[in-house]
Amino acid sequence: IGVIITKVEKTSKTGQKYAFAQISDQFGVFEVALFSEVYTKGRDLLVPGTAVIVNVNLRVDGENYRLVTQSIAPLDQAMQTLTKALRITVDETLSARHIETILSEAGEGSTSVVLNVQLINSPFVEIFLPSLYNVTPEIRSKLLAIPGVLGIQDS
Asked: How many Cβ atoms sit within 10 Å of the Cβ of residue 60?
């Protein structure tokens, strides 16, 4: 998971297009190779500033190594696919109307939502919401900004 910094497109001796992309993540910058078929499918994502998730194989040649991309997808799309359940921890001050408004904006999707309400004299109460939602990173950020929301976890 990272953000595209640069892309260098090349053409092989056989005329096939491929590219090298630099990606930045929380640990630093790394380079990945995208060969013909993967490059063709993911070319539009290789724009500086685009958040992506890449699946790579490590190829070792002596002391050199190369990360060869097997697949690449926009991070927001991948998060929607990967997140099957969202656990939102809230305190007693939460206005449920705020969560209802944001989740209705999210629309129908594939993510279930559980509210963990932390009460003063009790450990917590779990409330399983009946619908499935389209929880994008934007929706997640809006939920986190609601007063009374203490945290969000994928489960």
From this structure: 8
